[in-house]
Each structure stands twice: as structure tokens, then as C-alpha cells.
Amino acid sequence: MITATLANIRRSLLFMITLSLLPAALRAEKPSLPLVDAHPNGAIKAIADSSCVPACSGSCMSLKAVAVNGTSIAPSNCIHAMPGDAITSEIKISGWGSQLPLGVRAYQATILGEHGAVSGSRGTFLPVGWDAPIHSQICNPGSCTPQYPVCQPQGYAGICVGNSFDPTLGAFIDSNRADFIRFGSTLFGGIRLVSLDYIYGMTTLVSDGTPDTGVIRYGGTLVLVASEDACGTFEYAFQRDINYTLLHDPTPQQYTILPDTQSLIVSICTDDGIYCNGQENCDAVNGCVVIPVNCDDGVACTVDTCNESAHGCDHTPSDALCDDGDSCTSDTCTATGCMHQSICGSCCDQSDGTCTDGVPASTCTCSQCQWAQGVSCTATDCHPLFMPIPTVTSWGATVLVLALLIGAKICFARRHGDVARL
User: How far apart are CA 294 and CA 271, in angstroms?
Assistant: First the structure.
């Protein structure tokens, strides 16, 4: 617990009371507005990330995302989003009992927006309605640039803004919420919108305090929109200084900074955790770049698909992709490619073979294919080394044998000079 000087306390309370005297439009105390679905195709998940601080526990003041494009999510101080998404975040306060046992009478939270708006690798992450330079440009009437032509000398410290400038759209306190930290009290305060470093603050004139009952309390809303070229990690941090981010007790002589004050960290177009839609990466030059999943195994006959549950690829063999149009082959897909095996060893479509019914040899089936002599094919018949021997009659065989014997006798007689006796 930190004991403050009376001067610091008076300065803090003076700021809050001053805010209460501003017009209602400047106090930015309005209920939540419906959000336009800025990026309906964005894959949004409130997920853990190694770059995020641990979850808020015990004493904590944190800035947590509670909705994306109008859709509620589990509160998280670290999310993944896409360009164009609108992120609704809220100040959450808890666990002040040990530091302020008398309860909370007043609070103040300063969010460093100027840093957060450009803390990514590319593009901006700005509050809804912020139509002005990121860094405040002090102006006098007539000194503003054509891009930001309006000089707002009252309530905005004389900064140049555009014609549609209305920062109350993206920063407000809904004091009517039952979980508001000072719900039911007569309040003074609001939000200081002089620059992107928004200061939320509320106090009461009644010397009472909200007790710590273990319930997380609400302290304000900030709606941020990622530009269409945004990528990288954007961080909206609290200014951790006793004069800017603090809780007062009812005295009000004691006030404290909660020790686990957390920032809002939003990663734009980083991996959304869905394996099969590719890996999203932020490139400072080209913006969001998707690296697709490559499931091609190089085998033409497999059907390659992405398996989300296994975070890998499936390669399913398809025999149909191996069909060579030849009915005499069995076509199958293997790990290395297509294999074409003859159904009957070969289909007998040699030049001296033919098929029944006049069917062309290229389209015949094994049971149709025959030799010209009418002999059915076998597994070896179609090989040139196994051509069939023509059949002969018994008389033909006798004549052949006699011719061979006579030839042999003549040859023997010539060798012995006995040809005359033949």
C-alpha cells in the first residue's frame, strides 16, 4: 500500500471533479453501443499466447477483451484478431481488500493509447470515433491541415481533428451496470479525451467505499478497431504511476496501485489455431500473409486432404485415378504410384493373334482373345518365346519320319561311297 501526499490526492480529486463539470458528450458516460460486424470472416479466438502476461488473479486492474465484432467472448487480455475487427474491451478491477480494507471510494485508470495505436508491425489500432492524428497536434483556428481541418480548442486542448471526430463512441463508462465499481452512488468524473492516452476516473462526495467481496468489478469500456492493413502485436497498457492509475479509499488518505495491473494484447493476423486454413503471418511490408498447408505427397493417384484433428495430412490411395482404359489390366494405387498388372498374364494381342467377334485387340478381354489357329490363350502364350507349334495329321507325321530316315541313309551312303547301292 502506498501513502499519498495530500497534494497528490487533491490533484487527483480535482481532476475528477473537473471532468464532472464537462458537457455530457465530453464525459463519455454512455451505455454500450451496438458494434458493426467490421470483419465477419475473421477467425477470432480468445486463446493463450506465450507473449501474454499471466491471467489476472488476486489484486488486479486489467483491460480485457469481452467482444469481437459485437460477439461476446470469454474475457481475455490476450486475443488473436484479423484486420478490420472491432475489439470491445473493459477495465476490470478486483482484489483490493488487503490494500484498502475500507473499500474503494474513487478510482482512476490511464490507458496509454498513443503507444498502443502504433505498437504493431504495420497499420493502426485506434478507438472508434478517433478522427485525429495519433500524436496530438496543438492548433489555433486556421492552422490545421486539410486532412484534419477542425481545431477543437475547448475540451480537447486545441488539437486538429476531422469532421467526424467523436472519441466518445469508443470510450465510455456505463455507470448503470450493476457490476460497476461505484454502482448506486452519486458520481463525479468521466473520461479525459484530450489525447489517445484516455484517463478514466470516478469519485463520490459521500465518504463510503465499495467493499471487496471477491467479485470482479467494471470500470469502463474501450472499443478499438484494427485498420485493414494492421498486422503484428498491439498492446494497450496502463500507465503505472500513482498519479494516473490508482484506487482511493474513503478517507481519502490511502490509495494504491493494484500490483497485477495488466495490459490488453491483441495479435492481428497471427495464427488463429486452425491448422488446415494455413498459417497466418505478419509481414511488415506485405501485411498479413497466409502460408497454406501443403498436403501434396507427390503421388498422382492419392487423394491428399488436410486432417484438422491430427494437425497433418491424409493421403488416401484411389485406384480409379490409375485407370489406363485397358480392361485386360488390374489397376491399383501404391505408395509409389500406379501399378498395372495383367489379369491373365497377357492378353494375346500380338501381331499374329486375333480376337473373336472382330473386337480390336486393344479393347479385348482375356477370355475373348484367341490365336488364329483357334487355340485359347494361356499365361505364356503371348510371349514370343512361347509361340504354339502347329498341329499335324498322323499321315503327315509318317511322311515326315520317312523323309528324315531316307535323308539320313543318303547322307550315310555318301560318306562310305555306297551311293550306287541305293
Answer: 16
Distance in angstroms (rounded) separating the CA atoms of residues 230 and 86:
12
In whole angstroms, what is the distance from residue 288 CA to residue 270 CA?
8
What pairs with residue 338 in β-bridges? Answer: 333
Angle at 64 between CA 56 and CA 71, to 5 degrees: 135
Helix (H) or strand (E) holding 107: strand 106-112
What confidence score (pLDDT) does residue 143 get?
84
pLDDT number for residue 154: 65
One-letter amino acid of 186? T
Say which residues have a Cβ less than 8 Å from residue 20's Cβ, sequence separation at least 6: 27, 187, 188, 189, 190
Distance set, CA 421 to CA 58, 87, 405, 406, 413 (Å): 134, 125, 16, 13, 9
pTM over 0.70: no
Count other C-beta atoms under 10 Å from residue 65's C-beta.
24
For residue 54, the model assigns a pLDDT of 59
Supply the pLDDT for residue 92: 94
For the CA atoms of 403, 408, 414, 419, the dihedral, rounded to the nearest 10 degrees, stands at -50
Domain boundaries, the chain: 2-131+166-283
Phi-psi region of 281 (alpha: psi -120 to 50; beta: other; left: phi over 0): beta
Cβ 51 vs Cβ 267: under 8 Å: yes
How far apart CA 136 and CA 115 sit, in angstroms, is: 12
Nearest alpha-carbon partner for 180 in 28, 31, 14, 11: 31
Q: In the numeric block, which cell numbers belong to residue 94?
A: 478486483
Task: Dump pLDDT digits (tens) for 4-26.
Answer: 433 444 444 444 444 443 333 33
Q: Kindly state the DSSP code that residue 225 receives in the 8-state scheme.
A: E
Which residues of the chain fall below pLDDT 50? 1-48, 344-389, 419, 422
| Cα–Cα dist 183/173, whole Å | 11
Contacting residues for 334 by C-beta, under 8 A, at least 6 apart: 317
State the architecture of 2-131+166-283 in CATH terms.
Sandwich (2.60)
| Residue 412: strand, helix, or coil | helix
Q: Backbone phi, then psi, for 188, in 5-degree steps?
A: -130, 135
Query: Are 280 and 271 in contact, with CB atoms under 8 Å apart?
Result: yes
